[in-house]
Amino acid sequence: KSGTVRLTKRLTQQRLADIKRFIQNEQILCTSDEGYWSERYAFICDEKGDIFQFKNRKSQEIFDSVVSHFEDLEVAIELFVLKARQLGISTRVALKFLHRMLFLPNIQAIMSSVNAEKSELIGRIMNICYERCPWWLVPRQTANRVGKMVEFENGSVLSIQSGMQATGIAQGWTPV
Q: Residue 168 and residue 152: Cα distance in Å, rounded?
């Protein structure tokens, strides 16, 4: 074809080694630091449908500091967050859940909201973020029933439920 320039460039062994080292480094940093992962790789969607890179709000920074305190103590984290609406806490929790499921094997998690519509929003937040992560950084999804359940090849499973469903939260749910 006229006007088409085709460039072919072979990767040297050194360049391949550098790329492999970069990938391994990113995998280790993301596994050990949820903040590192969310600042560099997390993308979210706003109410208008615009997708953008996640940036912590002040309310989310405060939430992170509360959660990190419990993580330092190595205790189970169960919080009731009484707050105003639209502070980004549900988004932050969804990203924390997603991080654990992507980087730690065999995580079994349940997220829910009062109504089914809000529960589906949680699933959409996580799905958008997962889809924008580099393929070399995260495990493959083995199942995705949008708004219901997500499974990954590392054995992690997320069930998304609603407080308005006929059965109780997690009732009858058998993780893999």
A: 25
